[in-house]
Amino acid sequence: MPIATVRLASRTGLDFRLHLVQRAPLFRGLDAECCGELVRLARDVRVARRERFFDQGDPASDVLVLCAGRVKLTHAADGCEQVILRVIVPGEVFGGIDVVDGGAYPLGAQALEASHALVWNRCALDALAARQPILLRNVVRILGERLRSLEQSWRDLATVRVPQRVAAALTRLAVQIGRNGDGGTVVALGREDLAQMTGTTPFTVSRLLSDWEARGYVQSRREAVVVLDATGLARHAVAEPRRAATVGE
Amino acid sequence: MPIATVRLASRTGLDFRLHLVQRAPLFRGLDAECCGELVRLARDVRVARRERFFDQGDPASDVLVLCAGRVKLTHAADGCEQVILRVIVPGEVFGGIDVVDGGAYPLGAQALEASHALVWNRCALDALAARQPILLRNVVRILGERLRSLEQSWRDLATVRVPQRVAAALTRLAVQIGRNGDGGTVVALGREDLAQMTGTTPFTVSRLLSDWEARGYVQSRREAVVVLDATGLARHAVAEPRRAATVGE
DNA sequence: CGCTATTTTGAGATGGCTCAAGCTATGTGG
DNA sequence: CCACATAGCTTGAGCCATCTCAAAATAGCG
Predict the structure, then answer these.
(1) pLDDT confidence of residue A213
(2) Residues A229, A230, A235, A237: is their CA dihedral positive or negative?
(3) pLDDT by residue (tens digit) across B219-231?
(4) Is the pTM of this model over 0.85?
(5) The CATH number fitting domain A161-239, selected from 1.20.200.10, 2.40.240.50, 1.10.10.10, 3.40.50.2300
(6) How far apart, in whole angstroms, are the C-alpha atoms of residue A216 and residue B248?
(7) Of residues 228 to 247 in chain A, which lie within 7 A of strand C by their beta carbon?
């Protein structure tokens, strides 16, 4: 499948859209009329696994709310090392909410699995925001939350060791994007992705997972990790004593 | 001097306040009437070097705009390691712009030198924002900028080596908080602060500075670094080849 | 049913941390 | 005005957590 397959709402249903708009934190508190207008203005965009909604550096023309799927927000510089700053789940906003006119997306958005989003033109939302200040308030709230989470994450990256960071990320991800199955919570991310979220290498992640698998905390899968014992993992996340990579007693 | 000495505007002058309010990015685009109201609502807070405007975890009741001085925003967890996420210079906002009602300051604000801020009650600003949506727009813009800068910084922390990070931080700080003197730009920060801004230890910072001093890029001072050759430093920031800590050829 | 992407594992190198001393401004009290 | 106390800085030595690189094992996919 090529880039962003666009189609008009067909069987997707206008009422489905309405439901989504009314649930999205971005639009919380807007009256029915506004929600109706939003539904009318929205475009539908679907992308396949590994395809992108947009790239870092593209003109930031849209604001998106994820309907279904998982999307990772990435940041790279001069073609080299890439990191993952955030994973978006259905209901969340991404794209150009906070970008000033004429700016570019600071992050790229790549689908971890087939995904579907409602998309608005930034100008259109700006116009709505002028009439509905609550929309701006929502944006401020959302940005504030993100800022806090990033600040925390920055601190962890600067002060916490790799095994603890990976363990913490896994437990968080289990809650955020995990799916139940096989007696545990399946986190559908490969080693590379986990490494890019925690500031380490796929090799180190792999070693940690092997270790934790031996202890029964997780089950290693291809492109996924099954969290079996979140508590045990969390304990490790806090008090990892020393030598996590050594499998020995 | 104890905590936050508060006094009414005396010789500080109402016109001085007005000037500041009109220049602050937070209040950009507000009409004269609003600025006047803001001046009337503002409190004056001064703190001595090393004192704090507020601590992480305090109820986030205020929004502050720095008038004079330098303030570092810190983040710590369970009493241990602390990091510095940002340095505020005059004109910038800090405090509880993005915190929802009843929340706490996510960061602490400690003065790097004797500092002076105008302070507003969050509720009062909220009331103003309800009438002047441009204020919310400004907040969104400011939060967006911060988010982008933090994202970039997160990536650097995850992918870039210590010497490059420190060199990059120094050149940035020279522009942001540097003062001219002694044939260079004086950055008034100690090794510990530099370490907390770059995710390393004071020891490593010290070694790097010794090295760069030998090369003539900087001059090591107590509680300060004089940047003599920003270009040379920047070159190091990009292409640090290997072994920066070894002084030898 | 071979191909390719992903993962695992080993072995080795090393960047940066830790800890322990010693050093030097700075300010202080005698 | 000087000697001392103190906070900040430097330096050395050693270690070890983590990265690198290479190679083999595995698992989907076409």
Answers:
(1) 95
(2) positive
(3) 999 999 999 999 9
(4) yes
(5) 1.10.10.10
(6) 49
(7) none
